[in-house]
Write a structure and sequence with these properties.
It is built from three helices and 13 strands, in the order αββββββββααβββββ. The protein is 17% helix and 45% strand. The model has no long low-confidence stretch (mean pLDDT 94). It has two domains: 17-87, Thrombin, subunit H; 92-186, no CATH class.
């Protein structure tokens, strides 16, 4: 699995976007998130990629000042009541962890997480102990990750030992008591 395949698996996760509408109020663009109904200034997303819904199609572009969005082939002017979606950022420590584990462990972790109806974007906490072991010959420890999909909570312990062989063990525990374990050994 190459970097592009990993990126695609993450890119197409459910709940990867914040969706909402915008309004021009008091000379400022305000973004109203659909799910939480929270309001924030659209300028917080300047120079970031976002998508606007136009003619039943999502148009991807980069947000600039004065309600302008640059797509691949044109500059769009945003309008009040436009629907936007903005890609969520992964928690930094989770992003680093996903980069550090093997391709097989990455694939098994993501697909099992998804089978439990969770997305990597549901992560609310990640302690990545691997980060503190850079340069060590023997890397051993436990990472702690918590996901909340608004219906259930999933706590994951990632036990790892990277020395002569790589051993990844993921213990998934849901708030309803269901537990599953995935173990990946590789040389």
């Amino acid at each position: 699995m190459n970097r592009q395949q990993r990126s695609k698996l993450i890119e197409f996760q459910i709940r990867a976007y914040i969706e909402g509408t915008i309004e021009y109020i008091n000379d400022q663009w305000v973004f109203f998130e659909d799910e939480s109904e929270e309001a924030s200034l659209l300028e917080e997303y300047l120079h970031q990629e976002l998508e606007v819904l136009r003619q039943s199609r999502w148009r991807k572009g980069v947000l600039f000042e004065d309600g302008k969005m640059a797509t691949a082939d044109e500059i769009l002017l945003l309008k009040s009541s436009d629907t936007l979606r903005i890609r969520k950022n992964l928690i930094y420590s989770l992003e680093r962890l996903l980069e550090e584990i093997s391709d097989d462990a990455f694939y098994q972790f993501i697909t099992h997480l998804n089978s439990l109806q969770f997305s990597v974007y549901d992560c609310i906490y990640c302690y990545n102990h691997l980060t503190f072991l850079k340069g060590e010959d023997r890397k051993e420890g436990v990472n702690f990750i918590i996901f909340d999909n608004q219906e259930d909570i999933c706590s994951i312990q990632h036990h790892f030992c990277y020395y002569e062989k790589k051993n990844d063990r993921f213990e998934f525990t849901l708030n309803n008591g269901k537990r599953t374990i995935i173990e990946k050994l590789s040389s």
